[in-house]
Design goal:
This protein is mainly α. It has seven helices and no strands.
């Protein structure tokens, strides 16, 4: 009963939000975090961000996406990175991957490309290391 009430309240709040203002504030939070998190996590963060900004999300998907981004970006979380180290990172990664899986139908090629281009702008082009070739016996 309580969970249904909370979801209803959250849905009402989401419908009444000023998404342009919220998205600008959200983007400002992503930038400093992304530089520390690295290329892959930044790609996931930006994909969720652009899905919020341009994707066709249901109110439930929108709430889930905001929740996942907030969980990762807000300093206090269930397993703090400073205390739990790698384990503290896994809960953040899990939140991102879970949200991405839940909204994957709304992630268009344009959203994916926009996120990839921004990551490339921040980190430079991805350098692939050549696969070592076995030496030939002469």
């Amino acid at each position: 009963m309580l969970i249904a009430y909370l979801i209803t309240q959250l849905s009402r709040r989401i419908r009444s939000m000023n998404f342009k203002g919220e998205l600008l504030r959200l983007y400002d939070s992503i930038v400093p975090f992304a530089r520390k998190a690295g290329r892959k996590v930044s790609l996931w963060l930006l994909t969720l961000y652009y899905a919020l900004k341009e994707g066709e999300l249901t109110p439930k998907e929108r709430a889930l996406t905001y929740a996942a981004l907030a969980y990762v970006l807000i300093p206090g979380d269930l397993l703090p990175r400073k205390i739990f180290g790698l384990l503290g990172v896994t809960d953040d990664v899990t939140a991102l991957v879970f949200a991405l899986q839940k909204i994957k139908k709304a992630i268009t090629p344009a959203i994916r490309q926009k996120a990839e281009m921004k990551v490339e702008e921040w980190f430079g082009p991805e350098i692939s290391t050549p696969t070592p070739q076995p030496e030939k016996n002469a």
